[in-house]
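Supplementary Note 3. Input sequence used for the single-chain structure prediction.
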Amino acid sequence: MKLPPYHWWRTVFFLIPAIAVYTMVLGIISLLSTLVDRHGHTAHRCARLWSWLILRTTGVRVTVKGDAPTADASYVFAANHQSFYDIPVMFASLPFSMRIPAKASLGRFPFIGWHLRFAGHLLLDHKDRAAAVLKKMQRMISDQASLVIFPEGTRSTDGVVLPLKGGVFLMAIDSELPVVPLSISGTRQVMPKGRLMTCPGDVTLTIHEPISTEGMTRASARALAGRVQAIIAGDVS
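The predicted structure, written as discrete structure tokens, is reproduced below.
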């Protein structure tokens, strides 16, 4: 019988317990902070620290290429998706107060779900109409926050950027927010999809130029998705 490799044992008996502790402690601090900081900025700092600790504990080194856009505006950051580690990489590396879209039902889950609910993340129900989503986006913008989306809809198993779903770009078009394509390379080697094992590694996050959505209509969503996909795929390895 072949024993699991070293990094499996390290993941199961060290990383998972460590990340659970980070999540519980910072989750509690995040929730308490929302009592005095209704904009969720302190909660986001907790999320950034949570992300940094995960990367540091795992041994993930991140190189950022490209210049971040001006920090005094809101954006929709659209990234390819290879691994659970994509979110810690972005949260730890980008100097923005960021929110993610998630199913409304996740808001009931302890710690992470509570953080999403009370820190102003975009909790969406399948029954939400465009006007309801736009209202939530406007609330996020008023909090000087930006949105992070994974338009592929799932994680890539081989690193190839999957076709991007045009529907998620409607949020950017309706809100007239610039879309910033992000290319992430290396997280698939850190933690491949469907595998309970993490390994130290080098990750590259490339920030591309923002794409203005001013003047775009909802009919432009599919073309915008294709444009973003071409930009992201050109820098993914």
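The CA atoms of residues 69 and 208 lie 9 Å apart. The mean pLDDT is 90.
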